[in-house]
């Protein structure tokens, strides 16, 4: 096999976002685009000579071809070995686990997560460090710097690796080990949870529906829920992964997982419903007749984590992204443990988990996880919920009602304005930033601003500082609104508006969230001029 050195030049737009580089699939398929980025990852991490990497993805369109390019480039760059999921498949949490289990020098994960797949949809690629977590900003900055000066990449000429057969082969000097994507992950889950209790729950007639959304979690959920835990056949629906996720949008929220919502809100609903996203790191939790917001789910899991053997000794601390509701803060306060507030992006939890400061982490964007891996983990969250339900022998609705009665309820909603012209979105944020000093004490309807600032994070472990992480406006009532631009979109800009209000009166804890948040929604528009800047009269997605 011949090693080729191909001349190239920098390609614009290769700056990693919230979680790696996400682009339209056709952009990734363009001349040298993937190769430039892969070489820049290798250059940005100091080369891959003699290194071992995990490689896998969510199986979306272009996954299979891109993996072959990555393997040929790893071999030509002198890597010692690549451990690859069979047929190129690994869920994001399974990849994180494999990196840690095998002690590799990190891994490359091919995914655009919850974004749709297909030749006219989205593709993505990210590098995870040896701790199994998404590369922190210091590393992605070096990768980005490499994309701007790249002038050549190295690639092997030759046949594709056989990724369908388990076992070891060679690609020139590099070993290619094909592993079953589910086995190691499933074994890890068994060490964390009380599988006997969950088995007994299912044996007692407990019914569940897990919507894998035609994405990567299907095989994992089928093996664990139906195979090991004895859930009825057919518990997992849409369980066969497809390159375009069955033409759907693999984002587990009430809009895109509408079928599941309808089932859970309908007559004869199962006891428990859940869904996961394209690459298996997000989750949605829904009980019979009740949707649980990701922020509430994090709080509930933190309050009751000791149901699971892995957390029986208690939590070291918890962490949430800044726009996530403060529901978990009050749980942490009661438990007497630390609660960290980080910028959006799972990569910011890595140091806290590595340093043993936090055990559980979560985000409003349907992500929850723990120190068992360094990614959020959809199926893990579902299993922890099942473990809690098995222990408490109560319903999701009753669990949430008891939780709110004890801790108060944070009404919460996110409004997304998608595909806004980038200039207009930037103008809105610039104007908002400029208005910040004058906001305190201003009244908006019944609300008065108590404080307003732009979030910056000082990492307590490595001392690094991340600025410009979202604009937050707090009201004297205890409510707040946060504005930020998404870092995962592939067209235009997405304005995210996070709305939250705290309710401690039990008589007012069971209202519709949009109704409860109406004054804050009105204030958000008045403060940021959303209609004025975007021309939009309503959000595209309300979750
Ligand atoms: C990624 C990140 C998350 C983040 C989410 C949304 O999730 O890992 O930490 O909360 O994007 O980010 P943004 O608001 O910038 O779009 P995923 O599931 O897409 O990998």
Quick structural gist:
With 543 residues, the chain is an alpha/beta fold.
Q: What is the mean pLDDT? A: 96
The backbone outline, from C-alpha atoms, is globular
Counting H and I runs of at least 4 residues, what is the number of helices? 18
CATH architecture of the largest domain: 3-Layer(aba) Sandwich
CATH topology of the largest domain: Alpha-D-Glucose-1,6-Bisphosphate, Chain A, domain 3
Could you state the CATH homologous superfamily of the largest domain? Alpha-D-Glucose-1,6-Bisphosphate, subunit A, domain 3
Domain tally: 3
Name the helicity range.
Answer: 25-40%
Chemical compounds bound to the protein = 1,6-di-O-phosphono-alpha-D-glucopyranose
Arrangement of strands in the largest sheet: 2-6-5-3-4-9-8
Number of beta strands: 27
How would you explain this protein's 3D organization?
The chain has 543 residues and is of the alpha/beta class. The chain has three domains: 180 residues, Alpha-D-Glucose-1,6-Bisphosphate, subunit A, domain 3 (Alpha-D-Glucose-1,6-Bisphosphate, Chain A, domain 3), CATH 3.40.120; 223 residues, Alpha-D-Glucose-1,6-Bisphosphate, Chain A, domain 3; 134 residues, Alpha-D-phosphohexomutase, C-terminal domain (TATA-Binding Protein), CATH 3.30.310.50. The protein is 33% helix and 26% strand. It has 18 helices and 27 strands. The strands form six sheets. Strands 2-6-5-3-4-9-8 form a seven-stranded mixed beta sheet, with helices on both faces. Strands 20-21-24-25-26-19-27 form a seven-stranded antiparallel beta sheet. It has a five-stranded mixed beta sheet with strand order 11-10-12-13-14, with helices on both faces. α10 packs parallel to α11. The longest helix is centred in the C-terminal third of the chain and has 15 residues. It is globular, with a radius of gyration of 23 Å. The protein starts with a strand and ends with a strand. The relative contact order is 0.11. The mean pLDDT is 96. The structure holds 1,6-di-O-phosphono-alpha-D-glucopyranose. The site of 1,6-di-O-phosphono-alpha-D-glucopyranose (G16) has 16 residues, from loops.
